[in-house]
Write a structure and sequence with these properties.
single chain, about 350 residues, Rossmann fold, 3 domains, binds phosphoric acid mono(formamide)ester
């Protein structure tokens, strides 16, 4: 049984194969119409979603399988206090594979430790979103022809933007990648993403607060929403929410063949006038989500063994009589899970094995 918790659970060769299968599904959909006959996908969404949940459900239906699940925690027994571990243990008796979204970081890892069926992380708090990354990679490959030799600008909420964290991790394994990180200082990329995926990679990194300055250099502009739901203090959100608004005027200095991606939903960070520009690829990107998720479901259901690589940190962790202080970590709500921490070779402090945040004294 194999789960997908972090995009790094997949090798580059496996990602290439998923992209290739997704492209074959696009060309020959009828070939796959019964590929998952008699199989069931459960979508357990403890947090809102349009694209991820519906594309997973559409993917399973187009593979000839069935779908069950819930779209909000309040309509599940989580509202009565049931743990993530118990929920997946039970749902594994009704479904062959589970796609799960949860507001707490590390929840899918906890689920994968308890589950008898594969768990797919469909987004955990502000941490990771590996299936959005598969969607992004399929889109970049389709639109630009390669995943190498790219200058990619990530703009907006790089702190809480889980799609940004996962895509940066994925890009660390491709050749000649230049990252341009465009954010206000309050919403810069978390240190665990820099430590785990940028440091030690061959990627170059340039940080700036100016989208205008970055624009002419970019092959891909990855816009993001400022994530209101992750802010502890809503005054901070109000101050930062209009930091970047992409308009047609601002695109005047962009390359003619640049593409604009956005995981969506958008609020106001891309003017709707930009939708008509040929460089706007975000609706094509959303559509690709269904095909790559079809490929992923097929892969995970056909795999007999394997475990997520992200478990390495968990398996090498030490158990300490200390608690993670990240208020968005799954350890703050899930009962009876180990307080597990790991250390990177060049760091003299511990990180939480569930959310990767530094352990504060
Ligand atoms: N991109 C994405 O995760 O969208 P949803 O929140 O609508 O699933």
């Amino acid at each position: 049984m194999k789960s997908l918790i972090n995009i790094m659970d997949l090798s580059v060769a496996e990602i290439d194969e998923l992209i290739s299968v997704a492209n074959d599904i696009i060309k020959n959909p009828l070939k796959y119409r019964e590929a998952c006959k008699y199989k069931t996908l459960a979508t357990l969404f403890f947090e809102p979603s349009t694209r991820t949940r519906l594309s997973f459900e559409s993917a399973m239906i187009e593979l000839g399988g069935s779908v069950l699940g819930f779209s909000e925690a309040s309509s599940s027994s989580a509202a009565k206090g049931e743990s993530v571990g118990d929920t997946v243990k039970v749902v594994g008796g009704y479904a062959d594979i589970i796609a799960m979204r949860h507001p707490k970081e590390g929840a899918p890892l906890v689920a994968s430790l308890k589950s008898d069926v594969p768990i797919i992380n469909a987004g955990d708090g502000g941490h990771f979103h590996p299936t959005q990354t598969l969607t992004d990679l399929l889109t970049i490959k389709s639109e630009k022809g390669s995943l190498d030799n790219l200058t990619i600008g990530f703009c907006g909420d790089l702190k809480y933007g889980r799609t940004v964290h996962s895509l940066i991790a994925a890009m660390s394994r491709y050749k000649n990648i230049n990252l341009v990180l465009i954010s206000p200082k309050e919403l810069m990329l978390p240190d665990y993403v820099k430590e785990e995926y940028i440091k030690g990679s061959e990627m170059s990194v340039y940080e700036t607060a100016s989208l205008e300055e970055a624009m002419p250099k970019l092959d891909v502009l990855y816009m993001t929403r400022i994530q209101r739901e992750r802010f502890k203090n809503l005054d901070d959100y109000e101050r930062l929410k209009d930091s970047y608004i992409l308009t047609l005027d601002k695109l005047n200095s962009a390359k003619e063949d640049m593409i604009i991606l956005h995981p969506l939903p958008r609020v106001n960070e891309i003017s709707t006038a930009v939708d008509e520009d040929k460089r706007a690829a975000y609706f094509r990107q959303a559509r690709n989500g269904k095909f790559i998720r079809m490929a992923l479901i097929l892969k995970l259901l056909n795999e007999k063994e394997g475990s997520p690589k992200v478990l390495q940190n968990y398996n090498n962790a030490v158990i300490l009589d200390k608690a993670c202080k990240n208020h968005n970590c799954i350890t703050t709500t899930e009962q009876e899970i180990k307080n597990a921490f790991y250390k990177n070779a060049d760091e003299d402090f511990y990180r939480c094995a569930y959310c990767d945040n530094k352990l504060e004294d």
